[in-house]
Design goal:
- This protein is an alpha/beta fold.
- Strands 2-10-9-8-5-3-4 form a seven-stranded mixed β-sheet.
- The chain is globular, with a radius of gyration of 21 Å.
- The two termini are about 30 Å apart.
- It binds pyridoxal-5'-phosphate.
């Protein structure tokens, strides 16, 4: 097969260099004569690899020492429930900012464990804009404020970290982590499923202020307690060794690309090119999101006539442009432009869109 460009929303494209290196090392990793998947996570090779992955991530995102880095499992969805278990005491409440599908799900999955207070919600606007900060009804006694900086399905993004005062800010960064410089100090807890910007599914990355780990006294199994994972270097039980290894390779790749500032600039330019093509199409293509809240990572768009959708998808695939079908909740198309999607992929998509519009009139 010739060059294909993968615009999948998740699991998503991985950097080609990362895949090539994993391929080279698959049968003989680190001189061990075995793959990384076939050896103990307690062995010195794996422990050294795991430590390097954490050190590289700490360097990339300038993570202060009073934050723990955890390599967990269960997907972001499991942590929708586990975060309130860990950060809220019995009878406590938490504020949720809901500006899309995932924020709504985070709130509903948290509800068995904490009093969920939806402090702002843009559902009435079909999640096409962010709830204006001035209208958020934050509770200064909340255990935490949860929000979703980038909504993967609706294609809306907070371009600034909201100021929520002294209450710890919790962010589901599954679809935007490491896509631009990150000011970790603004957050109490950051978490992300790996399968969009980090590595394969089955790994969850968490960056959490250490003082928050000691918050809860409610009874729960150790496996649910973040403090236990932190105290055991994320090896309370067998971690996702393959995912951790690939995440480590991605962190090395990000450093070689010039770090998060370089990625942020590259991602900004990629998204601008695609939005310019949509906005400049004279209504042939349309993105309905408030321009101030448009996502750099996920760009949903519709064609002026939905009857053309099937042709658009068939022809784009034939041209080597994959996974452009929109989420079923919105229909139309969606192009995801994560770190591993190079500018050339966006150029190829834009050229295809122009050509398609010309041919189909
Ligand atoms: C993909 C995604 C999720 C779901 O992640 P799982 O790992 O499948 O649980 C949650 N939040 C956001 C923002 C996502 O993009």
């Amino acid at each position: 097969m010739s060059q294909v460009w993968n615009f999948s929303a998740g699991p998503a494209a991985l950097p080609r260099e990362v895949l090539e290196r994993a391929q080279r090392e698959l049968l003989d990793w680190d001189g061990s004569g075995m793959s990384v998947m076939e050896q103990s996570h307690r062995g010195k090779r794996f422990i050294a690899m795991a430590a390097r992955a954490e050190a590289d991530l700490r360097e990339l995102a300038a993570i202060p020492d009073d934050y723990a880095v955890l390599f967990l499992q269960g997907g972001a969805t499991q942590h929708f429930a586990q975060i309130p278990m860990n950060l809220a005491g019995e009878g406590g409440s938490a504020d949720y900012i809901v500006n899309g599908h995932w924020g709504a799900k985070a709130a509903s999955e948290a509800a068995p464990y904490v009093k969920v207070h939806v402090a702002a919600d843009s559902k009435a606007d079909d999640y096409r804009r962010l709830p204006p900060r001035g209208e958020w009804k934050l509770d200064p006694h909340a255990a935490y404020v949860h929000y979703t900086p980038n909504e993967t399905i609706h294609g809306v993004e907070h371009h600034e970290v909201p100021d929520v005062g002294e209450v710890p800010l919790v962010a589901d960064m599954s679809s935007d982590i490491l896509s631009a410089p990150l000011d970790v100090r603004r957050f109490g807890l950051i978490y992300a499923g790996a399968q969009k910007n980090i590595g394969p599914s089955g790994l969850v990355l968490m960056i959490v202020r250490r003082d928050l780990l000691a918050r809860t006294t409610r009874p729960m199994a150790k496996i649910f307690r973040y403090a236990e994972h932190a105290a055991n270097d994320s090896m309370l039980n067998t971690p996702n060794t393959w995912g951790w290894y690939l995440a480590g390779l991605t962190f090395q790749w990000l450093k070689a690309q010039g770090g998060l500032a370089a990625m942020g600039e590259r991602n900004r330019v990629k998204a601008e090119r695609l939005y310019a093509a949509i906005d400049g199409s004279g209504g042939y293509y349309r993105n309905a999101v408030d321009p101030a809240a448009r996502s750099r990572m996920n760009v949903p768009f519709t064609l002026h006539d939905a009857a053309l959708d099937a042709s658009f998808l068939a022809e784009s695939e034939a041209a080597g442009l994959f996974a452009l079908k929109g989420h079923k909740a919105l229909g139309g198309m969606r192009a995801s432009l994560y770190n591993a999607v190079p500018p050339e992929a966006v150029d190829a998509l834009v050229a295809f869109m122009r050509d398609f519009a010309t041919r189909h009139g």
